[in-house]
Structure formats: C-alpha cells, structure tokens
Amino acid sequence: MLLEDKAPLRGWTAAAAVPTCVAYLATMVSKGDRMAHQHPPRFLKIVDDAKTRVRETNVEEVKKRMDRGDKFILVDVREESEFAKDHLPGAIHLGKGIIERDIEARVPDLNAEMILYCGGGYRSALAADNLQKMGYTNVISMDGGIRGWRESKYPLTKD
After folding, report:
1. Most buried of the four, 13, 70, 93, 118, by CB within 10 Å?
2. β-bridge mates for residue 73, sequence order
3. Angle between helices 99-106 and 122-133 (to 10 degrees)
C-alpha cells in the first residue's frame, strides 16, 4: 500500500508526508525524548505532575552506585511478564498495579532508600509519588528506565 493511500494522512502525498515524519522523529530523538510521543497526553500530564514531587536519578548514577556497593532497594515496577523477560541485577519486583498494596510487607521501613524503575521512567515516577503519599521518605525514580539501561549496554539478569 502506498503512503498516499493511508486515510489518516488525508490527501498528503508521500513526498510531503515522509519528510514531515522524518523531521518529527529527528526532533524527538534530538530532544532525548524516550518514546514519549507514543504516550497519550493525559497520561503524560499526570506523569509530569508526579515528577514535580519525586526525586529522580538517571541510569548512569544508578550503575555507579551499584558498582560502589551502595545500599538501596532496587524496585522494578513493570508488569510481571516484563520482569520475567529481564531486569536489573538485584531488583525486586513490585509491579505498579500492586506496589501500594504489597510495599509495607516487603519494605516496612519508611526511611529505606528505594530506587524504582520501569520501561522509561514514567510508571516509576507515578509509583514513587504514591509511595511518598504513603509515608515513604527516601524514594527515587530512575529516569530512562530499563530502555536507558539497555542502551548503555549495562548487565541484565533473568534470575
């Protein structure tokens, strides 16, 4: 099927559509926007709101801290199937759908340092915000998530 046959482009020719799409993607990549264009605007709005209240770190800093042997609890908040595929070494799994229900049993210390991560840093920001509302005082979201970890070619495990 030709690009100009696609209904959503409403009469655009391939000559007009392709450069526009390429320019848009180049802009997204140059901004370092890790696939945000795929997320709906209302979701991004609540993530942006949560990020005003949570502390964030990045992939490189988490790797440095792991290499130094710093003590913190690394929490993967992705879905169980995502965790089973692979995850960061030493991570525990508490998916975003159940973390608020199960966190007190797994991490009873409200002052324990926890670094949360997900695919790109959005779900972890939402989860961190909720944990803070529950009284946890030392929660950090890892911006870039496991995608950033993979891009840096850092080790993953399946244990």
Report:
1. 118
2. 114
3. 60
Are 119 and 82 within 8 A, CB to CB? yes
pLDDT digits over 6-60, tens only?
344 445 454 554 444 444 444 444 344 444 458 999 999 999 999 999 999 999 9
Report the distance separating Cα 77 and Cα 86, nearest Å.
13
- Whether residue 87 contacts residue 156, with contact meaning beta carbons closer than 8 Å, is answered with yes
How far is 122 from 39, CA to CA, in rounded Å?
Answer: 10
- The pLDDT tens digits of the residues spanning 83-129 come to 999 999 999 999 999 999 999 999 999 999 999 999 999 999 999 99
Query: In sequence order, what are the residues at sequence separation of 6 or more whose Cβ sits closer than 8 angstroms to the Cβ of residue 43?
Result: 122
**Cβ neighbours of 4 (radius 10 Å):** 13
Residue ranges of domains in the chain: 1-33, 39-151
- For position 92, what pLDDT does the model report? 98
DSSP state of 74: E
**Tokens 């970890």 — which residue?**
149
Order the strands of the 55-58 sheet from edge to edge. Answer: 55-58, 139-143, 114-117, 73-76, 92-93
Superfamily of domain 39-151: Rhodanese-like domain (3.40.250.10)
